[in-house]
Specification:
The protein is an alpha+beta fold and about 575 residues long. Strands 3, 4, 5, 6 and 7 form a five-stranded antiparallel beta sheet that branches. The protein has a two-stranded antiparallel ribbon with strand order 1-2. Helix 10 runs antiparallel to helix 13 and helix 13 packs antiparallel against helix 14. The two termini are about 65 Å apart.
Length: about 575
């Protein structure tokens, strides 16, 4: 609390009052301090008891607590009895006490009972016990900023200036009591308050972090059933900034337990998800027809048919009912269906990859949410995590399995589609067209076209004009699938690639990679020689920024690193992503 001992001589009582044995504090002063401590909310009083140190421990003897704090010059006092009365009234203020008594942490609100009211620059009586949001402490703010950056906002939800995801005082006290009786973890020091939770430092006495998590889970079930399901805990690398001494001495810091409330996962807005999926289905239908509308011969045939018939849709239906055939329109319908089905196959394989891992690992995630794109039909598919994954290995395998299988399927589909692309003067004019500028945004796709259809095909005389390349419907579907799945593997936020980066590099490393990815995509979007890259990448930038920008919720065990095979598969997936998304 930081005041000089000389100030302790003038506290709200006459100098003639008898001294407390062995101290320079008068009995009247002691009585005044006791009144103030009794007026404090129980939450603050408990913090004061803990601050008194091991000589007092959890003793509720306020006389002993006050004398211990006085002994260590930790009681900067008000200067007179009138200020003591004012302090006691403010400590009882009903607008202040409830949030502390509930154990919740107020955010960004000045608590007069806790703040500095001295005029000489010394600290107020309870400044040491301010929650993080109430201090102007630069070091604490630095810790909070780091936590806010490394973890999603769902871990620090707050309403009415109170964190709703933070365990109550009673819950964190019960949890620390559990730690004192278990043989698996040795707690060191008191819990450190962070936005939305607490950090508990200590040593894991078991062989690995997975065993520690299992041991503590079992302890909660058998000995602290009131906490089971009410709090969540994670064993993570220390997320707080290292001290200068730790940096200079290259100290390797021990992992910590992070304890939060139970409601830390993203809300699942069903209406919004259904809306996005519906828009995506419309976009897929549109992009399946667009390559045919770029073909002047097919477009002209449809236009002429429409001019001859007042209502195109009714005429088609009537002709179909009469058993008549409309060759070019039938051709468009059949092949656009093929394009849609091919694109669906690439995304189905993506989801199959995720499903295999979730079934094997018994992970809990939502079904896919489709995100639309005006060029490829889809920007991405999103699976929300419904329960934190056990390990980084699980997160990595889940994240990589979808995009990797999706990219491989898309490459195979495009290769088959290129093999089926006719190379005759009669057939080429009726093929759907893909813009050359769009195809050239992928080194791998352009290479496939040249290897199957002949070197220079993209730039050669086979293309109709100088803007489009004639390809089969399956080839175009494979190309779209390559781009969609490659974007899913981009290491940013909580995309599949971002999850993989978090699992492999840790949260700080993933944060740096996310920044580099966003810069690279921004440059590609606005420096390519036409607006095609802007139309493909820009929706993904918006998607990342507004929908997937934050990092994923932590795994239960973020200490044990993923296996080498999983890391190699992730590296291969990123290599494919790089080939697919790098322009020629």
């Amino acid at each position: 609390l930081g005041a000089s001992a000389s100030g302790n001589d003038n506290i709200g009582a006459s100098a003639s009052s008898p001294l407390v044995a062995g101290t320079t504090m008068t009995e009247a002063q002691l009585a005044d301090y006791i009144e103030v401590f009794e007026a404090m909310p129980s939450f603050l009083r408990q913090l004061a008891i803990k601050a008194a140190g091991s000589e007092v421990g959890n003793s509720k003897n306020l006389t002993e607590v006050i004398l211990t704090l006085y002994q260590y010059d930790a009681l900067p006092p008000p200067r007179d009895a009138e200020e003591f009365l004012d302090l006691k009234q403010r400590a009882k203020d009903p607008d202040i006490a409830p949030s502390f008594q509930s154990g919740k942490v107020p955010v960004g609100k000045t608590n007069n009972a806790l703040s500095d009211n001295t005029t000489d620059g010394s600290e107020g009586l309870f400044d040491r016990f301010k929650p993080p949001g109430l201090t102007g402490d630069p070091d604490k703010d630095r810790v909070n900023n780091m936590i806010n950056t490394l973890f999603p906002s769902t871990l620090r939800r707050f309403e009415n200036d109170v964190y709703t995801t933070q365990p109550t005082t009673e819950q964190i006290t019960s949890f620390t009591k559990l730690l004192t009786t278990t043989k698996s973890f040795v707690q060191q020091g008191q819990p450190e308050e962070i936005p939305g939770g607490y950090l508990i430092r200590g040593l894991n006495r078991l062989d690995n972090a997975t065993e520690l998590i299992k041991s503590l889970d079992d302890e909660l079930i058998t000995r602290q059933q009131d906490l089971n399901g009410e709090v969540r805990f994670f064993y993570i690398m220390d997320p707080t900034p290292p001290t200068e001494e730790q940096i200079e001495n290259r100290v390797e810091r021990d992992p910590v337990l992070m304890v939060t409330g139970k409601n830390i996962l993203s809300d699942n807005n069903q209406f919004f998800n259904v809306f996005l999926t519906a828009v995506s289905l419309v976009a897929i239908f549109s992009v399946s027809v667009t390559p045919y509308s770029r073909n002047e011969i097919l477009n002209q045939a449809v236009t002429e048919f429409a001019e001859q018939n007042a209502a195109l849709s009714n005429s088609v239906l009537e002709a179909t009912a009469r058993g008549e055939s409309i060759p070019k329109i039938d051709y468009i319908v059949q092949n656009s269906n093929m394009l849609r089905n091919g694109l669906a196959a690439t995304q189905f394989s993506h989801e199959i990859g995720h499903t295999i891992v979730t079934r094997m690992k018994q992970l809990n995630v939502t079904g896919p949410i489709l995100i639309p794109s005006p060029i490829t039909g889809l920007t991405a598919t999103v699976n929300r995590i419904k329960d934190p994954f056990p390990t980084r290995q699980d997160l990595l395998q889940f994240a990589v399995s979808g995009p990797l299988l999706g990219m491989l399927t898309s490459v195979l589909l495009m290769y088959v589609g290129l093999q089926l692309t006719p190379n005759t003067k009669e057939a080429i004019p009726l093929l759907p067209l893909l813009p050359i500028s769009l195809l050239k945004q992928s080194t791998l796709a352009s290479g496939l076209v040249d290897s199957v259809l002949g070197s220079g095909f993209v730039e050669g005389p086979q293309s109709t004009g100088t803007l489009d390349v004639p390809l089969s419907a399956l080839a175009i579907a494979g190309f779209f699938g390559m781009v969609i799945n490659a974007l899913a593997m981009a290491p940013y936020g909580r995309t599949d690639g971002g999850r993989a980066a978090t699992a492999l590099l840790g949260r700080s490393g993933a944060q740096g990679i996310s920044l580099l990815t966003s810069i690279a995509f921004f440059i590609i979007s606005f420096t390519y020689n036409d607006n095609t890259s802007l139309s493909v990448i820009f929706p993904f930038l918006l998607f990342m920024g507004f929908y997937q920008g934050e990092q994923e919720v932590p795994c239960r065990n973020e200490v044990d690193e993923p296996g080498a095979i999983s890391a190699l598969l992730a590296g291969f997936a990123w290599f494919l992503m790089f080939l697919i998304l790098t322009p020629v």
